[in-house]
Design goal:
heterodimer; A: 460 residues; alpha/beta; Alkaline Phosphatase, subunit A; 9-stranded mixed beta sheet; two-stranded antiparallel sheet; 11 strands; 38% helix; B: 564 residues; globular
């Protein structure tokens, strides 16, 4: 197995990062040394941390995820949302009562389907980050309209905003902030290939300068049957199959296919046996809930961390179907029910495994949506609300600014499309800091963090 | 969301390394192989690909390579191609009418019965059936490519009888594959499946009283994905830049807000007589004038005046999009990627875009001209391109499976073609026709696998977006089973190959020619031959295993997987 490259990979990551910092002029050499010291400490720590991104593909309708509840704001919401509005009476049970109330008497309730998340909020294990989205610099509505400050490119476009959320750059980007975090820590993992793990499709989020996404299915790693003892009864053919699919090639596409196949073959047995031998948990995950099945596999990987020799892992799971231009009323509650169930099960499993304080889970999405109705649903927006869950989370609180419930108000760029008041870079930097990234390294993780005064939002 | 029919997985059976059911196949094969041999031409007889050219001077390997780009299998086509040449073959395909109505097939199979109202599995059956059996191979190949550009996915259609919506969508793509892009764009726009998928169906004008705004989904995606893309392009597909070297975005949110008004007022045509309620999925959507926005719409330099009727407004909008200079390079490049290579040179894109812009007779959007330009281009045809270390494309998993089925004459004994959704990434193909996870297709045209030599070279490899540790294993496991057992009642006929089982060299060379256009190198081929030869051919079961192993080993090797 080719899994003992950690030290070399970490050294290469460090050198690359050093050159990036130097080239960008962000940091003097002494800062680099401080970063190196911080990371060295992290790498030798015996603790474990996992950062789990739950990406809601399609653009979650934040308007019906976190709903105004106080009389004034509910009335505004009801008027703007028209046929899409959730009845106020349905929200009473999920009204959030934060430790510090929002200004001007604003109250917010979670969607009725998010009762388990509300409970985690009450327990202080879930924080709500209000109106977060991609920004290059702090931006006002006036600046947006006049174009006087740089804006994230290709706003409102699904694929590009997914990419910007994951990597700070539009589609075509080849490293993401999950992967860039992974670069810093893969040296501490004896199985470095398992630093950045996806249980959903390929995503730029998990690609680093050195770190490479490793994917498992919801049932774990997949073995190639044909390379086992025999293929169609022939040991020689099984051996030949292994040779063919792993051979290097001078053709770049052929060679890359073989690289992926080698990674698949090299790590499958380790993952499969480690997961099989890991402590069992009894928390129930709904087998008909795709997100729950992905998170169950994450929990199994975390349970197997000792055998796998990993101390820092970045995970990605996802759910799709959120692009509800139509059928919002019938379908959004179904999606949120799945999200609620999956996240609650996952948190429960981490508690059961005694690792809840070491696992932080957060949501992300292409964008928020319009507050106005198009008749059947809502359209592409920009900022949205997200949640962060874990034992280390400073929960039971709102973070960021609650947007005015308005169309063409102080916080939206039309139809209730929120102009973010917190940037993804700040959100990511806060999570990265918890994970152990030194502040001096933060600009290599999220390149625009230097444009924001608050580098740590404090939710974890 | 429609209620999906629960189906039993089709491919869980073992690959029966000790096949007890193979005796009959072997016995039948001896007789049939004689018949095949008499069909003539270069496709049947284990040619090594260096010769066998007909009057066109096209070699076996060149013919097979062309067919890997233009068709779904080389079987029974190599000799024809050598006889009539590339252009002759294209002309013959252009004049071959569509091979039947998928909608009619569903009816003939009884899928209009009440029990199938909320079932969409038959939409998979009918598309696989068409792709595996239809003789109009170029049309089917182009329709499949178009289905990855004008994406509709059955999993995103919220309607009863969605199988009929998907069948009608496929038929529409087939009918328009060799027509004009402008008509294709309109047919796509008004197709009920697309209307359901991107919400033009039922889209209503603004309502000041409630604050309701038109649905923007189609207005956005028809620009971003179906016509002009996000950035201004040169005719060669490279990105235009402004005075400060920055890309120029083609539109903004205001453009979308305006264009969205055009796509209001459309709905299913329910007023027509037909055999069943499903007929409404065949007819283009119709305008309900009272729901159409009367506001002016200004976009891309065009203004549709206030009060323009909906049909006229649609015509102006689609004409505007169609005539935007981005369409040729934007569409042309992606069609090249689907058929020939992931990384066409700017000059190649420009040649295709120029054909799009003017077919030589002053016609813009002539699909036949575009297809000719793509497939006859020196970058597609020259043997020199075979040696490029970055040329070609990763074959799409669904195309590999279709190629296997066609090349080895797979047939459904009951004629039912119950091949299900093969999208599962861990145990099947990570891809299935008309089953894209979103309107952004299975993979993006600009996808670059991170941390690879491909990325370092600044190249793209779209199909690698569905290539990862589970999918490479899942594909091999799936094909190992399918090659041995078929899928559902769809079984291969290895008669011709079994006739070569006693000669592993001839067997492997034949499969290399048919499946890989001889692009599996001599070294790799030698390894496969030696492994296949190690299986004793003294029994019918052994002969069958030689055939199976030869096919799987060819289909497993990267030299096959990357179509050059």
């Amino acid at each position: 197995m080719k899994i003992n490259k950690s030290a070399d990979l970490a050294r290469r990551a460090f050198l690359k990062r050093g050159s990036m910092l130097g080239a960008a002029g962000f940091a003097a050499p002494w800062a680099l040394n401080l970063a190196a010291i911080g990371e060295a400490a992290a790498q030798t720590a015996t603790d474990y941390k996992a950062l789990v991104c739950v990406f809601l593909y399609g653009g979650n309708d934040h308007g019906n995820t976190l709903v105004p509840y106080d009389a004034t704001n509910y009335a505004a919401y009801r008027t703007i949302r028209a046929n899409l509005a959730t009845p106020q009476a349905n929200l009473a049970a999920t009204l959030l009562t934060p430790a510090t109330a929002l200004p001007s008497g604003m109250q917010l309730a979670m969607a009725p389907q998010l009762a388990s998340l509300k409970s985690l909020f009450d327990q202080g294990k879930l924080a709500v980050q209000l109106n977060v989205g991609p920004l290059i610099v702090p931006t006002t509505v006036a600046q947006y309209r006049s174009g006087s400050v740089p804006l994230p490119p290709k706003l409102f476009s699904h694929n590009d905003q997914q990419s910007i959320w994951q990597s700070s750059r539009p589609e075509g980007s080849i490293t993401g902030w999950g992967g860039r975090i992974g670069d810093l820590f893969l040296g501490g993992n004896s199985t470095s290939a398992l630093t950045c793990m996806s249980v959903t499709g390929n995503a730029v989020y998990l690609a680093g300068q050195t770190a490479v996404q490793y994917q498992v299915s919801t049932s774990g790693a997949v073995a190639v049957r044909g390379v086992k003892s025999s293929l169609y009864g022939s040991a020689a053919c099984a051996a030949e199959l292994r040779t063919l699919i792993t051979n290097s090639s001078s053709h770049s596409l052929e060679n890359e296919y073989a690289v992926v196949t080698r990674r698949s073959l090299d790590t499958e047995a380790l993952v499969t046996s480690a997961v099989a031998a890991a402590p069992v948990f009894t928390t129930v995950f709904n087998t008909s809930n795709s997100l729950a099945m992905q998170l169950q596999m994450v929990a199994k990987m975390i349970a197997a961390r000792g055998t796998l020799g990993v101390t820092r892992q970045v995970f990605l799971v996802s759910m799709s179907g959120f692009d509800l231009h139509d059928n919002l009323l019938s379908q959004h509650p179904v999606l949120l029910t799945s999200v609620n169930e999956a996240l609650a099960s996952f948190y429960g499993a981490t508690v059961e495994l005694g690792i809840a304080n070491n696992v932080t889970t957060f949501t992300a999405s292409d964008f928020g949506r319009t507050l106005t109705s198009n008749g059947g649903g809502s359209d592409h927006g920009w900022g949205g609300h997200h949640v962060v869950i874990g034992g280390a989370v400073q929960g039971g609180q709102f973070y960021g600014s609650a947007p005015a419930i308005a169309v063409n108000g102080p916080d939206d760029v039309g139809q209730g499309r929120l102009l973010p008041t917190t940037s993804v870079d700040q959100y990511a930097a806060t999570l990265a800091a918890w994970f152990g990234v030194a502040d001096s390294s933060m600009a290599t993780i999220v390149p625009n963090i230097g444009n924001f005064t608050t580098r740590n939002l404090g939710f974890v | 969301m429609a209620i999906l029919e629960k189906e039993t997985p089709a491919t869980e059976a073992s690959d029966s390394d000790d096949p007890q059911s193979s005796q009959a196949a072997v016995a039948a094969g001896v007789a049939a192989s004689l018949a095949i041999a008499s069909c003539g031409g270069g496709s049947g007889g284990g040619s090594n690909g260096s010769g066998g050219s007909g009057s066109s001077g096209v070699t076996d390997a060149q013919a097979s390579r062309f067919l890997s780009q233009a068709a779904l299998s080389a079987r029974d086509n190599i000799w024809l191609l050598q006889l009539v040449g590339y252009e002759g073959w294209l002309n013959q395909q252009f004049t071959t009418p569509p091979s039947g109505s998928s909608w009619d097939w569903l009816v003939s199979q009884g899928y209009n019965a009440e029990t199938y109202r909320y079932s969409n599995s038959s939409s998979d059956y009918v598309i696989w059936y068409r792709l595996i059996t239809s003789p109009d191979q170029l049309r089917q190949r182009i329709a499949l490519a178009l289905s990855e550009y004008f994406v509709v996915s059955v999993s995103g259609i919220s309607t009863q009888w969605s199988q009929f919506a998907m069948a009608a969508y496929w038929d529409m793509l087939c009918e328009n594959a060799f027509g004009n892009f402008r008509q294709l764009l309109e047919a796509v726009t008004l197709n009920p499946a697309m209307g359901l998928y991107l919400n033009t169906k039922g889209n209503q004008k603004e309502d000041v009283a409630t604050g309701r705004a038109p649905d923007e989904n189609y207005a956005r995606e028809v620009m971003q994905l179906f016509t002009i893309g996000l950035l201004e392009l040169n005719n060669d597909g490279t990105v235009k830049t402004n005075g400060s070297g920055q890309p120029i975005e083609t539109y903004n949110q205001d453009t979308i807000t305006n264009l969205a008004r055009v796509f209001t007022g459309w709905d299913l045509n329910t007023g027509i007589a037909g055999p069943t309620a499903t007929t409404q999925f065949v007819m283009p959507m119709q305008l309900i004038a009272s729901r159409h926005s009367a506001l002016a719409a200004t976009f891309l330099g065009t203004t549709i005046p206030a009060g323009t009727d909906g049909v006229t407004a649609l015509k102006i909008a689609l004409d505007t999009l169609f005539n935007h200079p981005n369409v040729g390079p934007f569409f042309g490049r992606q069609m090249i990627q689907r058929l020939v290579t992931s990384n066409p040179s700017p000059a190649y894109v420009a040649r295709v875009a120029t054909a799009f812009n003017n077919n030589g007779l002053g016609v813009r959007g002539d699909m036949q001209a575009v297809i000719r330009a793509i497939l006859l281009d020196p970058e597609a045809r020259s043997d020199d391109a075979l040696a490029l270390p970055t040329g070609g494309k990763l074959r799409e998993p669904m195309l590999r499976f279709i190629q296997w089925a066609r090349t080895f004459n797979a047939t459904s004994a009951a004629g039912t073609w119950k091949i299900y959704d093969l999208s599962d990434p861990a145990s099947r193909l990570a891809q299935s026709p008309l089953r894209s996870p979103s309107v952004f297709n299975y993979f993006r045209p600009g996808y670059t696998p991170p941390n690879t030599a491909i990325a370092s070279a600044g190249l793209v490899a779209p199909e690698f977006q569905i290539t990862n540790e589970p999918t490479v294993a899942g594909y091999l496991n799936f094909m190992q089973s399918v090659i041995a057992n078929g899928i559902a009642d769809v079984k291969p006929d290895y008669t011709t190959e079994l006739s070569l089982a006693g000669d592993p060299t001839a067997l492997v060379k034949q499969i290399n020619l048919l499946m890989a256009a001889n692009q599996v190198s001599a070294t790799t081929e030698a390894g496969i031959i030696a492994a296949v030869a190690s299986i004793s051919a003294s029994t019918p079961a052994g002969q069958l295993n030689r055939v199976r192993a030869a096919i799987l080993l060819v289909m497993a090797c990267p030299e096959y997987l990357v179509q050059k």
